[in-house]
Amino acid sequence: MNKNMPSILQEPRVSLLGNTALLFEAPGEFDLHTQMRIWALADQAMDWPSVGEAVPGMTNLMLIFSDPPRDIEAFEHKLFEAWAGGEEKEMKPREIEISIAYGGAGGPHLREVAENTGLSVADVVKIHTAPAYTVYAVGSHAGYCYLGGLDSRLFLPRRKVPLVSIPGGSLSIAGMQTGVSASAGPSGWHTIGHAEISFFNPERRPPALLGPGDIVHFKVESILS
């Protein structure tokens, strides 16, 4: 197995989060079809009387109980049955183009990523801007989007020593994912660029710029040394 690839579950896995929530982890490939099944499962679970909130993550689903089920095994069985149904949810995506200043002070790890992948800086930027990325989930912090679609030539493990803080708008990659930080905070990813865009504004409706299923295109604003 490629050391940069996450392990793939063969069967669904459930973990209780105290007595107020449950985490469902999906088996199978890390791809859009798996994520579409997560979105569909979230919709189904919201119709169950014991569920107050369903929060899709990256190939996982957190269910927050409004009234914790008395028979948790029966609840888990119902969850597994719903997953086995294989329903996928089709989204009506919005598309957004985001201009990125690659490298420089806003992308301090661009050259390091090039060295670790055996690519030139120009090729890293070209490869990174080529795909149409899909928002798989929104989380980590308000407005942050986990994007699927990163080219496998850019797969890298997380940094051994996380950064204490990166500014909002930082574009980073790690593992099979890429994303732009909506606000300042710590990060264990490789920061390769910066965007001047607001991903979250509490006065906006909806506050988050993007949601699950939306499509993101990255455009080169500049490549800085």
Topology:
Layout: E1 13-17, E2 21-25, H1 32-45, E3 51-57, E4 60-65, H2 72-84, E5 95-103, H3 110-117, H4 121-129, E6 133-138, E7 145-148, E8 163-166, E9 170-174, E10 177-180, E11 185-187, E12 190-194, E13 215-224
Parallel strand pairs: 5-13
Antiparallel strand pairs: 1-2, 2-4, 3-4, 5-12, 6-7, 6-13, 8-11, 9-10, 9-12
What attributes characterize this protein structure?
single chain; 225 residues; alpha+beta; seven-stranded mixed β-sheet; elongated
Q: Kindly report how far apart the N and C termini lie.
A: 35 Å
Low-confidence stretches: 1-5
- Mean pLDDT, to the nearest integer, reads 90
Number of strands: 13
**Structure class:** alpha+beta
Number of helices: 4
Radius of gyration: 19 Å
What's the story with the biggest beta sheet? 7 strands, mixed
Trace the largest sheet across and list its strands: 7-6-13-5-12-9-10
What fraction strand?
Answer: 25-35%
* Helical amount: 10-25%
* Helix and strand pattern: EEHEEHEHHEEEEEEEE
Described by the principal axes of the CA atoms, the overall outline is elongated
